Amino acid sequence: EDEQIVAEIMERRFFPNQAYKTWEGFHFAGHEIRITEATDCYGAVVWPSALVLCYFLETHSKQCNLVDKNVIEIGAGTGLVSIVASLLGAFVTATDLPELLGNLQYNILQNTKQKCKHQPCVKELSWGIDLEKNFPRSSCHFDYIMAADVVYHHPFLDELLLTFDHLCKNDTVILWAMKFRLENENRFVDRFQTLFDLEMISNFPSLNIALYKAMRKDRMKA
User: Fold this and answer.
1) Domains along the chain?
2) Angle at Cα 188 formed by Cα 151 and Cα 72, nearest 5°?
3) Using an 8 Å Cβ cutoff, are 124 and 101 in contact?
């Protein structure tokens, strides 16, 4: 079953016939999505975890109805997940580091203009920095936080956890696609579970990717 579903997920990716083209193509939410990548940084490449999350959003659109929902994607990179969520009816805020925003904005605009109920917005978010200033708890309420492949060999895992904690209200649902690589990064899952109830909703051993759903542990008390 794993190999069959993984094959179906990967079939959503296609490449242009002309070798000089710099984009990759994807089929999700009834649309052909063209993503421009850059090879000089991790954040400007589409990783398989993003495809896994997009596939889930599309194939579970009834159980996970995004229409008119307020969604934020952290570490949006090229914007594929944000684009698919927008095409499925959500109001999306796509976030990443300042040096990635130009390419992110380009991809989102090219693939969502006049196609979506709500035009998504792009905003800078450096994990752990100026969270209350840029995303005040009193006025920011997200129904969903989405993240694909945000845990890898980088020195900002503490800041990432802080960002999840700041953005997540008691009724916020986190959808997080995680590729397991090194033990140090994998331990982040244990730390994450000190704050959030975590449920694995899909697992793809052939890709070393798991898809999680999470909510705050203290939501019932509140």
Assistant:
1) 1-216 (3.40.50.150)
2) 50
3) yes
Residue 54 near residue 80, CB atoms below 8 Å = yes
How would you classify the pairing of strands 70-73 and 144-148? parallel
Q: What is the mean pLDDT of the chain?
A: 91
- What is the amino acid identity at position 174? I
Angle at 14 between CA 88 and CA 91, to 5 degrees: 20
Three-state secondary-structure class, residue 200: strand
Q: pTM of the predicted model, to two decimals? A: 0.92
Residue 173's nearest CA partner among 64, 74, 91, 61 is 64
Task: Give the span between the Cα atoms of 25 and 83, in whole angstroms.
Answer: 13
Geometric angle at alpha carbon 157, from 152 and 161, rounded to 5°: 125
- What's the pLDDT tens digit per position in 123-148? 999 999 999 999 999 999 999 999 99
Question: Mapping DSSP to helix (H, G, I), strand (E, B) and coil, where does residue 30 land?
Answer: coil
Q: Percent helix, strand, coil in the chain (nearest 5)?
A: 35, 25, 40
> What token pair was written down for 83?
């684009």
Tell how strand 23-28 and strand 13-14 pair up.
antiparallel
Can you read off the two tokens belonging to residue 156?
């900002």
Segments in 64-125 forming alpha helices (H): 80-87, 101-112
Cα gap 84→52, rounded to integer Å: 12
